[in-house]
Amino acid sequence: METCVLLAARSYDFTDDTGKNVKGVTLTYLTGDVEVSGERRGAFPMTINAPSEIATSLSTLPGVYDLDFKQRPGPKGRPVLQVVGVKFKAALDGMFKPAPAAAPQGS
After folding, report:
1. What's the rounded Cα separation, in Å, for the pair 44 and 31?
2. pTM for the complete prediction?
3. 67 C-beta neighbours (distance < 10 Å), count
4. DSSP state of 99
5. Three-state DSSP class for 56?
6. CB 26 within 8 A of CB 12
7. pLDDT in the model for residue 107
8. What is d(CA 70, CA 92) in angstroms, rounded to the nearest whole number?
9. N or C of the chain: less Cβ packing under 10 Å?
10. Are strands 79-91 and 35-37 parallel, antiparallel or unpaired?
């Protein structure tokens, strides 16, 4: 498991061009790695797709979570990283505030 700041989650559910139903959740997260060389400096967010069942384990976002990653063979035998589990560790209280509700159009 790797401790990460999980910034956001977006669920998806659609039918692809072949008629197959595709469901899951896209996670945006930061690790503790910070780049300090060349033209890249700072912590860069990453995204990864996960099974839709993972979304039910996301009690607080953004928040600190342990993410359990697993590798599987992908196209041409290249490794593909996938999230197989998450465990909530801590909230980021006071750092983030909910966005105000959008005003109704035509007001």
Report:
1. 8
2. 0.81
3. 20
4. P
5. helix
6. yes
7. 57
8. 26
9. C
10. unpaired
